[in-house]
Amino acid sequence: MSELTLIFGLHAVRTLLQQRPERAALLILQKDRKDARINELVQLAQARSIKTEWRDGRELDRMAGDERHQGACLQIRSVGALGEGALDDLLDACTTPPLLLVLDGVQDPHNLGACLRTADAVGVTAVIVPKDRAVGLSATVRKVASGAAETVPLIQVTNLARTLRWLKEREVWIVGTDDQAEHSLYSTKLTGPLAVVLGAEGTGLRRLTRENCDVLVSIPMRGVVESLNVSVATGVLLYEALRQRQ
Question: Residues 208, 129, 236, CA angle at the centre, nearest 5°?
């Protein structure tokens, strides 16, 4: 039986109702808020025979905790992260060269959510993260991802270095990021089967992860700041890959 979880926010709720309505169990709306965006959610739920309840704003505040619910909450059947075996199936199903995002130990749920959102926008095949010492698919991640947590497969692996070696056997080119790398992102080929690898906040790539990359690249920095937030760096890398692949 699927575990039930909650997602919050108008965009995240609308995205799931539109793209994964079979996973929606209950739409919960703030009863003193009725505007065009709320009405759209009501219509989507009605069209898909999803029950809707109107509740006091203070109850939504309690349910959302630190999250900003915007008057909308959706109870969903969560699929959670996928296992390593799903990655093989995803690659086999690709009709175009796969583009993978590998995050080596990202622990901030807001960063993971932002990375998933960018991954969805670029058309990433899957996001790969280690099981240990890394954030998973929490309610905060789903909220920040604005629906992308429901559309982009998240693969949790036991041994990231081993997974990178396996990807090489599948002829996937592994591009890691390092502030001190000699090669610039913009002089590196990012077409074909590709995995871009970014490290954790502050610490960067672990040694074994770095050693299993085919090439290390840096993002040019012209100011006094030495590095970018991992979610910002993810956006820079993925959109350069998208530019080259178009």
Answer: 90
Among 78, 4, 10, which Cα is nearest to 44's? 10
Residue with tokens 């065009």: 36
5 contacts 136 by C-beta, under 8 angstroms: no
pLDDT digits (tens, 9 = 90+) for 150-188: 778 999 999 999 999 999 999 999 999 988 888 999 999
Whole-model pTM: value is: 0.76
- Strands 3-8, 72-78: parallel, antiparallel or unpaired by DSSP? antiparallel
Render the burial of 123-138: b for 16+ CB within 10 Å, e for the rest. ebbbbbbbeeebbebe
Q: Which residues contact 111 (CB under 8 A, 6 or more apart)?
A: 135, 201, 229, 230, 231
Q: In the chain, what is the straight-line distance between the N-terminal and C-terminal CA atoms, in Å?
A: 41
